[in-house]
Specification:
By secondary structure, the protein is of the alpha/beta class. The chain contains 13 helices and eleven strands.
């Protein structure tokens, strides 16, 4: 049986499809699993042992369709459900199963604040898409496989971070899903441990702002004062310095993970890390909270303008950004 799974983007969404890949491969006899995604996300799946063949969309959809036509699939599993995937399904003319994106329920919640969202994680909704093939959900959670070449050795980190550290993924696709810089600094001070900041090149400047705030001086008096106040926050700004798999390796090495609503949150869940997830304009009820791992949600539920979007904005539509500015960081980490 030859099966094609389609999910073109993005990091977190692709990681969230990994249980579907696994149950199809392990529960169906002689299943050959192919996966189609965008070329920029290939590293997420290249080491996945449950995938027999990976197809990559670069620029021309027609080129991808021609490659897929030659495979003669038994089934197509559409976990993206957009115009491109509809074109692919029509071109392949094979029996297909499509994921329900619950866009209408999300629209009701965002625009009218009417809650008809199902109390079901998106992973379980992905799995519902393939149950008619005779597979059942397992209890193994998410998968993330790091190629050996991308495992980050401890000596690549500063001495202060080689024994243990907390990871903080400071990036997000939209600004309304990220804490403002002063609040990031406040959170890092509250964590009070060595911290590795993770993100892309676009997050490096914010990371430097955090790092410079906590930068140590050579003054013995200054260091003594920090020790007296039990201040242990030391920042290593790794934003833009590592590729995605290397960043995942750092998540895997960390003791705890703090993250906005972004892809590394799901990578952390795949490694069964304790996750502290920070939510601004989006809400966990959309079904994308950390899956099958211990987690704490930081969000402001005292305002009536959330969620203002199912994705995000470059700035708060109302101008006050209370969803992030008024979050309370209530947590405890063992010292």
């Amino acid at each position: 049986m030859k099966i094609l799974i389609i999910r073109f983007s993005s990091i977190g969404d692709i990681v969230l499809t990994t249980p579907v890949i696994r149950v199809l491969k392990t529960q169906l006899e002689d299943a050959e699993i192919h996966y189609a995604t965008k070329i920029q996300y290939s590293s997420i799946l290249e080491a996945n042992p449950y995938i027999d063949k990976l197809f990559l969309l670069d620029k021309e959809l027609g080129n991808l369709i021609e490659q897929l036509r030659g495979e003669k699939y038994d089934y197509v599993i559409d976990l993206h459900r957009n115009l491109r995937t509809r074109i692919i399904k029509a071109a392949l003319w094979r029996k297909s199963f499509s994921f329900n994106k619950i866009n209408f329920q999300k629209w009701l919640k965002v625009n009218l604040k009417i809650d008809q969202l199902p109390a079901v994680h998106i992973v379980d909704r992905y799995l519902e898409t393939v149950t008619s093939l005779g597979v059942k959900p397992d209890a193994l959670g998410l998968d993330y496989f790091i190629p050996e070449k991308d495992e980050v050795p401890s000596d690549w980190l500063p001495e202060t971070h080689r024994k243990s550290f907390v990871a903080y993924a400071i990036g997000a696709q939209h600004n309304t899903k990220k804490l403002p810089l002063p609040r990031m600094i406040e959170l890092c001070d509250r964590i009070n441990k060595p911290i590795v900041l993770l993100g892309g090149k676009e997050d490096f400047e914010a990371g430097e702002g955090i790092r410079s705030f906590f930068e140590r001086t050579n003054s013995d008096e200054y260091e003594a004062g920090l020790q007296e106040l039990n201040k242990k926050t030391v920042i290593y700004n790794a934003c833009g310095k590592f590729n995605l798999n290397q960043s995942a390796s750092l998540v895997k090495r960390s003791t705890h993970v703090f993250t906005h609503d972004t892809g590394l949150m799901h990578v952390a869940a795949a490694f069964k890390k304790e996750v502290f997830s920070i939510w601004g304009n989006t809400i966990p009820e959309f079904g994308m909270y950390p899956y099958r791992t211990k987690f704490t949600v930081f969000e402001n539920k005292r305002i009536d303008c959330r969620p203002c979007s199912k994705i995000g904005y470059s700035k708060c539509p109302k101008g006050h950004f209370k969803c992030m500015n008024e979050i309370v960081f209530d947590f405890y980490l063992p010292q």
